[in-house]
Amino acid sequence: MTSVLDLAPVVPVVVLDDAADAVPLARALVAGGLPAIEVTLRTPAALDAIRAIAAEVPDAVVGAGTVISPEGVAQALAAGSRFLVSPGWSDRLLGSMTESGVPFLPGVSTTSEVVQLLERGITEMKFFPAEAAGGTPYLKSLGGPLPQARFCPTGGISLTSAPSYLALPNVGCVGGTWMLPAEAVATRDWARVESLARGAAALRVA
Known about the structure:
By secondary structure, the chain is α/β, with parallel strands linked by helices. 39% of the residues lie in helices and 16% in strands.
């Protein structure tokens, strides 16, 4: 599979309370040009949502986010996840993600964490929580000494701030939720989701 960082400029970060919404939401995102979809394992509906998207939306590349244990890795894979994303990492979790056979983005927020992953041959990472952890100035500073590391910043990023992240050479894509406003999901306004997704997909890495 193509690197998760190269599928689209934005990876929607999806939190679903009702698995019945998964397929129409995923279809709206794909129609808007965002095929990589991260469904976070934060709700009881998450695994069923991943399972439904994997089975019924062939153009979607569905992955699991908030993966924080080897058990979560196994459950995500069994549900059909094609990539894994964690907010942070431990040696045990990293081992499970490495053995999974699918692409993964371990979360980092410090230089030392980046160096430790590079020592292990891992060059693609999630930078989280992006805005709280230093935002674009921090990532720009990492680019000098650690140019081999590439990031998907996630956490507090908006349509307004996304372009400044995507302009950095060490950023492949960003994660965000702005194309999934709570009221649009609650009212199942998939046309609005598709429209917002199209605007996000129009952003390009400089």
